[in-house]
Structures are given as structure tokens and as C-alpha cells.
Amino acid sequence: MTKKIFHIAAVSISLMVFSSVIAKAETNNTVAIGAIAEQLKATFNQTTFTNFEPAPVNGWYQAEISNQVVYLNPKQELMFFGEIYTKNGISLSEQTRRKWQSKRTKKLDVSDALVIGNGSIEIIEFTDTDCPFCLRFNRWITSKNNAYKKLHGKDLFTRKLVLTPIDQLHQNAHKEAVHILCQSPKNYEHATTQTLEGKISYADMNDCQKGKDELLKHRDISKKFGVSATPTLVIDGQIIQGFNQQKLEAIVNQKLNKIKDK
């Protein structure tokens, strides 16, 4: 009995020592990565990056710049954008993007966004009403939703719009955003489409204080999420910059198949 107690005690002490060594190693590793991150920030001082961590290639690190994965080598002071694939053709870069994007989108608060529709597929849209690709996206999603509604009698999408005027490019986009935000919820879709299509004059646009106040909230959401271009779309935990119809179709079809299987 004494031998067993001694053996258990010895094992417990060994495990405690081993755990302490692991914890110390992990702390040192965190400190080392932090130091490397600071070194790279100093080397590439014109670049702002987040989500710094070791890459799947020895000696290299990966970070996020504008929703893209960038690879950095501190010793050689090199940086490149590109895809890393396994021998089976799986993109490790895409897996990393999705991991980081999922983390970001979980924190995204769009409670002040405009809501259009009440379908089973949610899509968050950061849009500028003077942006031609936002217009193309609006035509695509409206057509897609109308076709589904004709067949099933209900919306396919719940659209959450965050109006994001890019003032440097479109000097009147903020007026258009205020006009839309002055509308009642039942008129959001009509006002958004009418404005995107350029079917309303500035003289006929609303300019209410409510719209101006709401636009400040929308700008704050966009700034916190780091939106730098429109459209920026969030669907199924993924962030899509620009109107990538092929990618959107693939995600929507995948989600439709899940709906059918229920």
C-alpha cells in the first residue's frame, strides 16, 4: 500500500513539473511570436496586419491584411501574397481565411442595419449606393429572391444593409444613404433599389435628422469591421469583397441543399 501511495505521489509530482515546463514553453513561444510580430511591423512599416501566427511553412509566419492572408519571413525580410496548397490540392490559405473571418464575423454587431426580407439565408451587405458593383449585386440578389419567392411563396434572404458611403470616391453617396435611412422599414427595399438605379433626383431625396443620425451608426459599424471597399458581403461566416457571383452562388446552393435536407 505504501509503495502504491509513493508511486502515485511521484507520478503526480512528475505531471506537475511537466505541466510547468509546458506552460513555460508556451509562454516563451507567445513572447517570441510577439517579438517577431513587432520586428515585422518595423520592417514593413507601411503595412497594417492582424492575426499574426506561425505559417505551415517552417520559418514563415502568416498575418491578415484586408481579409487576405500574407506570408512573412522575418530573417530574410520577405513578404508575399499567395496560396499554399497541400499535395491533395487543399488550400491551407483558404482554411486560414475562413478561420479568421469566422472569428471576426462572430463579433460583428449589425443590430442597427436596415433589414430587407425574412428568409432563411442571412447576408450582411456593406454597400455604397454609387458603387457599380453594389448595383450589380443588388440586381442579382433581388432576382434570386424574387425567383425563390415565386416558387415557394416566401423570401430566400434576410438582407442586413449597412450603408457605407465611400466619400473619397462618391461625393453624393452620403446624401443617398440619408435618403434611404429616412424611409420606413417597408420602403427600405424600394428606396435602396431606386437610389442604386439612379431613378430619383437629389432634389426629391429626403434629408431628415433621423437619417443623418442613423448614418453615423452605420459608418461606425463599417469602421469597426474595417470595411475599405464596397460591396463587402458577409454570408455563412465568410467575408466576400466585391461582387463575386460565382462564390455567392456556390454558398447559396450549399445552404439551399441543407434546407432541403431538413
Describe the structure.
The chain has 2 domains: 2-101, Nuclear Transport Factor 2, Chain: A (Roll), CATH 3.10.450.70; 114-261, Glutaredoxin (3-Layer(aba) Sandwich), CATH 3.40.30.10. It is globular, with a radius of gyration of 25 Å. The chain has helices spanning 2-43, 92-106, 132-152, 173-181, 188-196, 209-225, 245-261; strands at residues 50-54, 61-65, 68-73, 78-81, 114-116, 121-127, 157-163, 232-235, 238-241. A hairpin with a 2-residue loop joins β8 (232-235) and β9. 50% of the residues lie in helices and 17% in strands. The strands form 2 sheets. The chain has a 5-stranded mixed beta sheet with strand order 5-7-6-8-9. The chain contains 7 helices and 9 strands; from the N terminus they run αββββαββαβαααββα. The protein is α+β, with helices and mostly antiparallel strands. Mean pLDDT is 84; it is low at 1-27.
